[in-house]
Amino acid sequence: MKKFNFTANLGLKIASLFFAALLWFLVTNINDPVDSVRFSNISVTLRNTNKITDNNQVYEVLDGTDTISTVTVYAPRSTVDSLNRDNIVAIADLDDMAVIDGEYVVSVQLSTNKYNNQIQSIVGTSDTVRLSVEDKASKTLAISATTSGSLSEGYIIGDVVTDQNQIRITGPKSVVDNVSTASVNVEVTGYTTNIGTNAEIHLYDKDGNEVAKDNLKLSSTSVGVNVTILATKRVPVDYQVVGMPADGYVFTGEVDVEPDSVLLAGRMSVLNGIEEISVSDDALDITGLTGDLNATIDLSGYLPGNVTFGDEDFNGIATITAHIEATSDIKVEVPYQHIALVNVPDGYNAEIVGDTEEFTVTCSGLEDVISGISDSDITGTIDLSKVIDSAEEAEDLSGEYSATVSLSLPGGVMTSDTITVTVELSKVE
What is the average per-residue pLDDT within 179-197? Predict the structure, then answer.
């Protein structure tokens, strides 16, 4: 057998190998040339974020740097044609995080999850993710509830109650410290019945500006809210002044009250049965007073069950002034002929007898009332059936009887006088 000599014609062999490689390169570049493809808005995945969170800190990506606007891949055309944006892998490993000018910067490594060994190069329009890192803080806030909009006419908002009254927020200390209040709002326009709904929780700073929740974790994002809708009805208030002032004084009948009517709120079926609020209170007793009565009364004690005041600005306290003035006296001479004799027994005549034909009445009252009184304003009545009760069994009722006159005085006029006269009965001839 002829022995193969590898070193024979070595130069020719090397040259052949070089030309073969060159030929392969030319063929591949002619048949499958290097090309490029661009992909937009590639998201960067952050790895080892626990390097921050384990230190009770939180981070925030600055200026959207965790999204690369454009990534360009250079590879053979056959490879490029097989790639899509889901094949682009962008990783920012926080183990490689550095601090530059007060900002935390993490380099982005680009690769593909397909044909990675055939990629000549891959470049992005940005190559770092910038982070803001600060201490984590938490805060518990009370949840308040409000309503907006307008109810149908004749209805008002009653209680607004949430099914939980607190929320806990967690996030960057600077953001958490800026939150002052948490509240929910329910739109009530057009409602006439109770509302039960879920409402989103909103956060606000001390100036009432809403705080974005993007970087915060909330224990709840919404709460259940129940809004009570009440019907309303306005009714008058009747203040019952009782008693008599001291001697020499009179209640003028004039009463200044605030309010003289109240707006009630409750179920319509209950309100329909209420026509007024009647106030009878010891504070309205004028007995023995020599001056005006000034009183305050809490009207809430006079409301029926399940009824409240419909005016949120009214605290239920009423003020009452009953006017009392000193009286003036005047003496009036009244003819006996102003006295009517009634229930005269059948078969008898009755007449008033005595030394005079008139009697005197001392009238008391307000000056402007009694100043115009004349005798024609005063009348009297004697009921003879009461006078002769003791003589009913007598065969003859003739004789003289002492009788008390029941006086009739004008309104606002009083007298303490007792008028007694003598009445004579005689048989009709």
Answer: 93
pTM: 0.58
Q: What is the mean pLDDT of residues 135-164?
A: 93
Asked whether the beta carbons of 327 and 248 are under 8 A apart, the reply is yes
Averaged pLDDT, 348-374:
89
184 beta partners: 145
Average pLDDT over residues 144-173: 93
Average pLDDT value for the chain: 90
pLDDT tens digits for 320-342?
A: 999 999 988 899 999 999 999 99
